[in-house]
Amino acid sequence: MQNNKIKLSSNRSFGIVFFIVFLIISIYPLLNNNSIRLWSLVIGIIFLTLGLMNSKFLTPLNKLWHRFGILLGNIISPIVMGIVFFMIVTPTSIILKIFGKDILNLKKNNSKSYWIDVLNRNSKMKNQF
Q1: Cα–Cα–Cα angle for 56, 17, 8, nearest 5°?
Q2: Which residues, at least 6 apart from 21, have a Cβ–Cβ distance to it below 8 Å?
Q3: What is the tally of helices (H) and strands (E) in the chain?
Q4: Is pTM beyond 0.70 here?
């Protein structure tokens, strides 16, 4: 996969998103009757200020965050697809083999052709659009 074709988000949106993340981190302790985390609120305000000014200071962080997302996607995607395969596709295949089903007609037979004659056609393929 070529990572060069994927466009970075703007510094403005990057700053606003991280402001929201740090704001949530700062006010989360209020749910447990604790005090606000001031360090997180200060970092969030810095991100908001730099984001609204569309500052170039956020460009290296934006690139780093982008590369981290690409790396995370390259790691997590095969894991999720493997879980889907081994939790859904494999048990379905085993159950179909137990019941002797051949949905794709892959079993060999002794006929001259594997052509399937369709006896009852419901569509005429006229006026498709």
Answers
A1: 50
A2: 44
A3: 4, 0
A4: no
